[in-house]
Amino acid sequence: MSKKVISLLTVFTFMMLLCSFVLPNSANEKLEGNKNIERKIVYNKKKHSITLSWSAFGSSGNYTITRGGSRLASDFVSVGSTSKLSFIDNKPNTSKYENYYKVSRNDITIIISLENQIFGDNMYFYDRKHEKAETARNEINSQFSSIGGLGGANGEWTTKRQAYYFKPNVNGQTYDVGGSGSASSAEANSIELGFYSHIGGLGKVPSDVKLGAIFTRPHLSGGANATCTFWRSVENVEVMRDFSWTVSQSTSARRLLIESTSKYISDIGNTNFWGSGGFIADAHYTTSRPNWGGQQQWYTRNTVFPSGSGVMGGSYNMVWQGCVNSPQANEANSPITTTPIIREKPFLFIGDDGEYKVFVPAWQKDRVGVSWSATDMGKGEIQDLIASWYVAKEGDTDVEINAALKAGKNIFFTPGHYALNAPIQVNRKDAILLGAGIASVTLEPTEKNIWGCIYADDKDGIIIAGLLMDSFNSTTYQVRIGNEGANADHSTDPILLSDITCRVGGVQSKNIQIQASMQINSNNVVGDHFWLWRADHGSQKGGDARWKRDRCKNGLIVAGNDVTLYALFVEHYQEYEVLWLGERGRTFFFQNEPPYDTPNQASWSSQGGRVDGYAAFKVANSVKEHHTIGMGSYAVFTGTDGNVNKKNGFEIPNSPNVKLEKMCITRFAGSGNIQNVINGTGGSTATGAKRVASYNNGEGTQPFDEEFTLPNKESYPSYISMEK
After folding, report:
1. How far is it, in rounded angstroms, from Cα 293 to Cα 273?
2. Which residues contact residue 519 at a Cβ distance below 8 angstroms, ignoring those fewer than 6 apart?
3. Phi, psi (deg, nearest 5) at residue 366
4. Exposed, middle or buried: residue 598 (CB in 10 Å: 0-12, 13-18, 19+)?
5. SS3 assignment, position 261
6. Which of these, 196, 565, 205, lies nearest to 361 by C-alpha position?
7. Nearest to 595 by CA among 569, 572, 571, 570
8. What pLDDT, in 10s, does the model give residues 315-334?
9. H or E stretch including 544?
10. Residues assigned a catalytic role
11. Which of 28, 333, 594, 714 is deepest in the core (most CB within 10 A)?
C-alpha cells in the first residue's frame, strides 16, 4: 500500500532496470558470471581434494588458478596453472566451503566454489575469517545503489532478488566497520538493505554474527516517507550499534539481538516522517527502548525490551504480544500477555560439522519472550540441507520442484523469480517450502496455469515460509491450504504459514481475474505475518483502468476451524478483504485499506446491493465463536467519482461468543468515508478517527444473511492429481 499516490508522470518516468552485480576485480581482469561460462566443482571427502572444471574461455595461454578462503577474501594465493579445462587441488583449505577459486586466462576471470554451485548466483556469503570488516557492507550498499528501477535507487519493481548470509564470527571479530550516530547518518557506516533483499546470520544464535548498523532508506518525500518501503527481511544476527528498520508492509525482522538503537523511523528528509506498519518477532533489545515514531501501526511478538512501560510511538494500532516490558495499554496500544501457539520460522545455519543445516523450531504454547538464549538455539529439529532438501534456483520449474516434493525433499528457494506453469503441490506430511531473499513464485502470462501458485493438501505439519506470490495470469487462488471440505484434525501438529506475501497487479499489462489471494480450508492453521495486497500503485495505469485490469474479490477466505493468525495485513481487494467462515478463529492484529480505485458506489456494494461497500473484516453470520484483537481500517478513496463510501469497517454476527476488540477507523485521503466502525456503530471518519474498544453481541445492526460461493474441486487442472 502507499499513502502517497504516485503520479502517472512519475510512473512513466522510471524504467525497470535490472543490474547484475560484478565481484571486485583488478584493473586488468574481467569477471564472468555463471551464465556465461560453465563451471563445476567436486569435493572428494576421502582424499580431501577438490576438482574444478570449466568450459573454454580466453584466446590463448594457460589457465591460472588462485584460491581464497571466501569469495571476497583479502588474499588469493596461487595454486597452479594448466592448459586443460580441469584442475585438481590436493591441498585445499580444511573446510570445503572455505575454498573459492579464481580461474584466469587473458583478461577474463571466473569464480568457482561449492557454495555458488549449491546456492546459485543470488546468494552472497561473507566470512570474517578471510575478509575485512568493510567488505560485506561495501558490497551490499553497492547493490542497493545500483539495482535501480521504478521506485527509486533501490528498485521497487525490479525482478532481481538477493540474500546476504554472514558466517559466524571467529576470535572476537565482528562485521562492524565502526561509526557513530543514528543508522541513517553517513557517519554510521550502516548496511543499507534494499527491496527484495535479506540478511541472515549462519550461526546458531544471533550473537554468533555481529553487525554494526542497519538502515532501510525510504525513497519517498526526500527519504523520510517509508510507506512504500516494502519486501525485505533480516534474521538471526546481532546489531551492535543502531537498528533503524524504517519500513512498511512485507518486511520481517526476526530472531535478533539488538544492543543499541536510537530510533525506529527515519530521521532524514524534512516532511512525512511516517511508515505504515511492519513486523518484528523473537527479538531482544538489551540497552535502550526503541521508538516506532511515525508508524501508523505495528505488530511486535515475543520481544524483550529493557525495563519500562512507557509508549514507544505509533498512532493507531500497536499490538505487543508475548512481549516483556511492553508499553501499557491505551487506545492505540494493545499488549497481549502470551502468544497462545507459535512455531518460529525455519532458518539456514552452519552446523558443528561445517555443513549447511536448516533449523525447524518446535511448536510452543503460551509463550512469553524469545525462543533462544545466548547459548541455546532453542527447541527444534536440525535437518541436513544436502540430504533432506532440494535447493531450488532461479530457472527451476514447477515440474522440478513438484518432483522433488514427491521424492520426499523439502524445498529451499534461493532468491529468484520462479515462473510456474502449474501450482507447486505440497502433498505430504511435514513438507517445508522455505524462501530466501523474498523469492517470488509467479504465475506467468500463459493460458496454462489458471489455478494458482501453491496448493497444499490437508496434511499435518506443513510449513510454507518466506515467499512472495505474484500473478501475471488469471487464477482461482494464489495460495490454497487444504482441499475444499478439508476436515482433518491437525491440533497436535498444525500447519504453519510464515512471512507470506500475495501480490495482485502492479506490473502486468494484461487483464487478470483472481477469486482469492489465499484460502485456508484446513483446520489448525497458524499464520505468522501475511501481506495480501491488491496493488494500489505500480508500473501500469491506475484509476478505473486498474479496477478493471487487476481483478481480485477477496484477500483471504478462512473456511477452516481453529485458525490463528498473527500480523494480518490485507489491502485494496474488491469485495470482503477478509471473509471468515470457520469456527474458533483468532486474529491478533489486522491492518487494512479499502480499494483506492473504486469508480462509483454502484460498482461497490454488498449484501445484495443493500449496503455501501464491503467490510474489511467479515465474520459470517453462521459463525458461533470468534475472537480478534487490534484492528485498523483506513479510508483512502482517491480513484473514485467522489461519492464512494463504506458503511462498516468490520461486520460480525451479534452472537455471545463472537468478539472483536480494539478497533480503529480513520481517513487518510480522498472524499469518501467509512461510515461506521462495526455493525452500524462507532461513528464516521468524516469527523476524525473513531475507535470501539470492544464489540460482543452488541446492539448494532447484524448484517444481512448471505450465501458465499467458493471454488470447488472442479476448478482444479486436469493434469494435477490432488490427493484425497
Report:
1. 8
2. 477, 479, 480, 481, 556, 557, 558, 559, 710, 711
3. 50, 50
4. buried
5. coil
6. 205
7. 572
8. 999 999 999 999 999 999 99
9. helix 544-549
10. 593
11. 594
Q: Which helix (H) or strand (E) holds 519?
A: strand 512-520
User: C-alpha grid cell for residue 456?
Assistant: 497444499
pLDDT band (50, 70, 90) for residue 718: very low
Tell me how crowded residue 25 is: count the other CB atoms within 10 A of its CB: 14
Determine what percent of the chain falls in helix, strand and coil, rounding each to the nearest 5: 10, 40, 50
Task: Name, in order, each residue with C-beta under 8 angstroms of 36's C-beta and a sequence gap of 6 or more.
Answer: 57
Segment holding 213, helix H or strand E: strand 210-215
The values of phi and psi at residue 489, to 5°, are: -95, 115
- Residue 30 to residue 298: CA distance in whole angstroms: 46
CA 428/CA 699 separation, integer angstroms: 47
Cα Rg of the chain (Å, integer) = 25
Whether residue 552 contacts residue 574, with contact meaning beta carbons closer than 8 Å, is answered with yes
Q: 3-state SS of 651-706?
A: ECCCCCEEEEEEEEEEEEEECCCEEEEECCECCCHHHCCEEEEEEECCCCCCCCCC
Q: Residue 312 contacts by C-beta under 8 Å, 6 or more apart in sequence?
A: 264, 289, 290, 291, 292, 305, 318, 327
How far is 579 from 577, CA to CA, in rounded Å?
7
Helix (H) or strand (E) segment spanning residue 631: strand 625-637
Contact yes or no for 233/255 (Cβ under 8 A): no
Give per-residue pLDDT as tens, 591-643. Answer: 999 999 999 999 999 999 999 999 999 999 999 999 999 999 999 998 788 88
> Residue 404: enclosing H or E segment and its boundaries?
helix 398-406
All three cell numbers of 585, joined, read: 478463529
- Extended strands (E) in 57-169: 63-68, 77-82, 86-89, 100-105, 108-112, 123-126, 162-166
Which segments of 347-431 are extended strands (E)? Answer: 347-350, 356-361, 364-367, 380-384, 389-392, 410-413, 417-420, 424-426
Stretch (H or E) spanning 133: helix 133-146
**Rounded Cα distance, 302 and 375, in Å:** 18
Burial class (CB in 10 A: 0-12, 13-18, 19+), 35: exposed
Q: 19 with 154: CB under 8 angstroms?
A: no
Q: Is 167 exposed, middle or buried (0-12, 13-18, 19+ CB in 10 A)?
A: buried
**How far is CA 28 from each of CA 6, 108, 109, 524, 647, rounded to the nearest angstrom?**
44, 9, 10, 60, 68
Query: How far apart are alpha carbons 435 and 218 in whole angstroms?
Result: 24
Pairwise CA distance, residues 146 & 139, whole Å:
11
Grid cell, residue 271, equals 516532511
Q: What is the rounded CA–CA span in Å between residue 659 and residue 652?
A: 8
Nearest to 72 by CA among 168, 119, 140: 140
Task: Say which residues have a Cβ less than 8 Å from residue 707's Cβ, sequence separation at least 6.
Answer: none
First CA to last CA distance, the chain: 38
Angle at 557 between CA 556 and CA 559, to 5 degrees: 150
pTM of the model: 0.93
Cell 461468543 sits on residue: 657
Distance of alpha carbon 12 from alpha carbon 538, whole angstroms: 10
The model's pLDDT over 189-234, given as tens digits with 9 standing for 90+, comes to 999 999 999 999 999 999 999 999 999 988 888 788 889 999 999 9
Half-sphere exposure of 510 (CA within 13 A, CB side): 12
Sequence-ordered list of residues with C-beta below 8 angstroms from that of 602, at least 6 positions apart, any chain: none
